[in-house]
Amino acid sequence: MKLLAKKKGNLTREKIADALDLYSAQDKEALRRRLRAMERDGQLMFDKYKGYALMDESLMVSGKISIHQDGFGFVSYSDSEKDLFLTAGEINHVFDGDVVQVLMSPSGSGNRSFNKLIKILERNTTQIVGILKRKGDDFYLVPDSSKISHKVDVDDRKMMDAKAGQLVNADIIEYPTFRQNTLVQIVEVLGHPEDPGMEITVALHRHGLVEGWTDEEFDHAEACGTEVAEQDKLGRADYRDLSFMTIDGADARDFDDAVYCERKKSGEWRLMVAIADVSHYVRPDDVLDVEAQTRATSIYFPGHVVPMLPETLSNGLCSLNPDVDRLAIVCDMTINAKGLVISSEFSEGVIHSHARLTYDQANAVAVKRQSKMARDVANSNPDIIEHIKNLHDLYKVLIPARSKRGAIDFDTQELKFNLNKNKKIASMTPVIRNDAHKMIEEFMLCANVA
Question: Which residue intervals define the domain RNB in the entry (predicted)?
């Protein structure tokens, strides 16, 4: 390094050998290995045309790598710069999501293959899900993730009674290098690939998602009870006489928003959007808040939900279920004939949902009033029919205002997965978005703008 610093430029291996008086084949081989090691450790840069030079620290960056299923990867290191491309050969011992140090191409030629992986700074994969395989006396894992192309050996000293052909979850006990494979130890046998619901089980483990709850989290949720305490209603605006209703998908289990609409004598509209007041039960930094921040959201699979909060809350006290009192944050808006929100007020309130409707039911009442579904709703909930019509009439006022302000309509095709008795996908059918879907979306936008 002193030699290269003194020369202030590139030197070939031959010139370095001459400068260091290394003439024997043995010495030159030792020099070759040493230079390769220094290059690998990020001490030297190598150019096949110019030779070796001291590392230019300004070209060294670090970031998280995203690996493509074909083996190559991109390193994100700056919000303002393009990601750096790394070839499959550079990263055959790296996992998707690892934080790595990269030497950017010094040429500025844009040849992306010049970027060089220096070292792995942080490992972010600790477990691998895959199918256990056997070859002779050795076991290995075929990862479920297409982003893992490494060979994965299995420590056969702790097999958890797993059999070849089964899906397992395994801890990484030795990370791969250029000289050795990944070594894992089985910690859980998931079952056979054809077992009912196995796709969901694998997805949960692949992404490190937690489905259950600790005793502390469960007890904390249970302590909230199953009904709203009378003392919790004190000091809140009482909206229980208003015909709030929830409108959601047929398979929805929790209802976090409810709506109510009436036409004022002035010709303006009163729109109220109620959102379940989760913050009353989940306080900052308590055990449920910490876990909810980790989960970030509820996760929906076909026929299965992993909630962000225990079911006691997510499907109970924090769900605006029909015919029960619930605490909510209520946005009370006045909307003029041009579809503009001219006033709004937020309050902590108590509501009593008068009905749980599906999108299809609400749409039938709004636009297919002579259909059997509309008549069934009218027979079971006659008091809400006028309010559904009010909601739809207001929606028709909001649409021209939406177009006038140039709002973009992301109306993409959604598919529904239909499962058979073994929880395997039997078919897929398109979800038909009707006026009820769009109506609720518009009302949520109004509340957000307010």
Answer: 236-450
